[in-house]
Design a protein that fits this description.
With about 290 residues, the protein is of the alpha/beta class. The chain has a domain of about 190 residues: NAD(P)-binding Rossmann-like Domain (Rossmann fold, 3-Layer(aba) Sandwich). It has 11 helices and 13 strands. The strands form 4 sheets. A 7-stranded parallel β-sheet has the order 3-2-1-4-5-7-11, with helices on both faces. A two-stranded parallel sheet has the order 6-13. Helix 1 crosses helix 7, helix 6 crosses helix 8 and helix 8 runs parallel beside helix 11. The longest helix has 20 residues.
Amino acid sequence: MASPRLFVFGLGFTARVFADRLKAEGWRIAATCRGEDKRAALEAQGIEAFLFDRGRPLEDARAALAGTTHLLVSVPPDERGDPVLDQHAMDLADLRTLDWAGYLSTTGVYGDTKGEWVGEAAWLRPTGERQKRRVEAERGWLNLYRQYGVPMHLFRLAGIYGPGRSALDNVRDGTARRVDKPGQVFSRIHVEDIAATLRASMDKPTLGAVYNVADDLPSPSHEVVSYACGLLGVEPPPLVPFEEAGLSPMAASFYADCRRVKNDRIKRQLGVALTYPDYRAGLDAQFAAEGGR
């Protein structure tokens, strides 16, 4: 019997951590990338690689997807919509070997709740264009389940962090800032806890399900930076009022919404026990793994 095969559209930070976990379990991994250099690098690592982008669909989708038992989509929508849906929806609808499919979305679809807790059943009130595109993409993926039976699951991810992409890394490379906007909090999730949640969903599929993936402690970003500085034994950067921070439009947009994201469903339905229930646990573990420096 052939080992299960995961096909990933967009092998980014989160998807790569998850794919590596399954590869270590003996799974076959296939993924898309956008350039020949990356394709060659992935092939050298034992990952089947296929070129894909907006305007460049899979050259032979039937062959590329053949034997896929599990599908993960982490390609974000662009101004024209979801490129995977636009170019390969019917190929996926025809894929009869598929047991599970996951789409990585964002908690940004909820918009601004003024700091109130928000669960999966809440109204979606996205405030920015990127978040509105996500809502449309979610609808498209759920429609693929409702109309064609593609076994979709949606995962709304909070702010992702982990080794190589954390406050510790930002402090070390000098890009960390402490911006003060009173009352502002962000929900976060460690990349390894995302991977564990996806794995748990594969073991307990609930077609059409939607899951928030967030830790237990929404917190102001400046507190996270201060904690990282404490671990590294350096002076925290000065606390700057939001209005005086001179943030780029993209950076400022993250402060437009304030919400606390509920994670009860992944615990109750999937049995997920977070390895890193708050940013302190995540940063402590990274700091220790990197030799405490």
